[in-house]
Fold this protein.
Amino acid sequence: MSQSSDIQFNDGAAYERLMGRWSRKVGREFLRWCNVPAGGRWLDVGCGNGAFTEEIVAHAQPSAVQGIDPSPAQIDYARKRPGVGLARFDVGDAQALPYGNAEFDAAVMALVIAFVPDPAKGVAELARVLKPGGLAATYMWDIPAGGVPTAPFYRTLKQMGMDAAQPPSAEISAREPLERLWRGAGLADVEMTEFRITVHFIDFEDFWQANTLPVGPQAARIKALAPDQVDELKRRLREQLKPAADGSISYEAVANAVKGRKRG
Ligand SMILES: C[S@@+](CC[C@H](N)C(=O)[O-])C[C@H]1O[C@@H](n2cnc3c(N)ncnc32)[C@H](O)[C@@H]1O
């Protein structure tokens, strides 16, 4: 597996509760922004449990959709999703796609680029498999700016003097590095945008349960904490999250997106 060993996405149902509900919200906006004509052949790299693949099938009127992810468990979950229709799935890595040159009209990575150890190689692969004029696009929570829905955990663990197990290429998710990455891959008509959503939990328990599921970067870190460290983490989180009068918790998540075309 190419990702760092303590960052695992091996449980499709847990991913759905931790991140799928937020990724779908931004995913829909991202899809509209990609603006790919109906009838396109799509490649969804790092498709995970198929949350975004389902959006492509439902809203982009594709003629074909191929998803690929290194996690066999996530791919298994994706294959069983009721809404994936015509989509097909493979287990594989963004840095060595098992597809021929010029096969797709759109090749996307939804919330993946920061997990790819060599992002430039990942984008070169997107470009290689695109037809001339095809669209390569990605969106990623802005991790350096604290835009990821799990940011309160990262921030609080750091304040407690602990490494928060960030993805291997977290820095690439900021606006300028993403734009440089796309231009560096030789893509044309490069455009950037950002998406903002409100992340909402009914109460602190809902927030804690969703964020401590055994999936994603923060899971292994939290599992390794001693009971008194868990109490301290909870205490600090409660203090910082400032629940509303009804106990609910809301904050903003921010993602950067970039798109560009393969030159003809
Ligand atoms: C945050 S999830 C995003 C899943 C899905 N695209 C979505 O929008 O909900 C990140 C995904 O990247 C995948 N991933 C990690 N390293 C990868 C790599 N080298 N190549 C392709 N996918 C990778 C993980 O297995 C995981 O499913």
User: Anything to note?
Assistant: The beta strands are 41-45, 64-69, 88-91, 104-110, 130-141, 188-201, 249-261.
